[in-house]
Amino acid sequence: MTDNTETIIVDYGMGNLRSVEKALENVGGCPSISGDPEIVRNADRLILPGVGAFGDAMENLKRRGLDDAIRCAVESDKPLLGLCLGLQLLFTRSEEFGSHEGFDLIPGRVLKIDEPGLCVPHVGWNQIEGTRPDPLLEGIPEGSYFYFVHSFYVQPDKPEDIVRWTSYGKRFCSIACHGKVWGAQFHPEKSQEVGKQLLRNFLTIL
What we know:
alpha/beta
């Protein structure tokens, strides 16, 4: 599959942009990295990666005018995929180092992993569970392993926004979706063939 539409990886100064770009190119995509609000607003689809702290990320997005650009794209029915911190930013509020407002594109909260005896951050390969059909998971077997690195997790308000669970001490939401807004807590760009398939699927969503 060769993708001829415009996929923009949002550059707000906090993300593993090049590895995501390379992974998309490897599955036939033609991605661009941009921090220009006008380009982001008019993209065919968006990917919001992220590494770092929630509050700093939202501050960077607002300062660069990218928060409004992303909201405008979503209101125009453009698909959006958040990865790792990018997933968390899609939620209403985070409790990471205080209380911070997110995009509120998926109603819910971001909470700290605090189960006794667990290593934090949660790092390494873990399974996704659940059987809800979703175009993002076409061709990906139930119980597939993806690569995680995170200290916080998302808790959607609405059960119907949970696409997949992962167990680490307790179950947490590892893939969420609300409308055409998706988010994955893991790193598909580091998850070998199943990660490639997930990205390939996203490129087919219009």
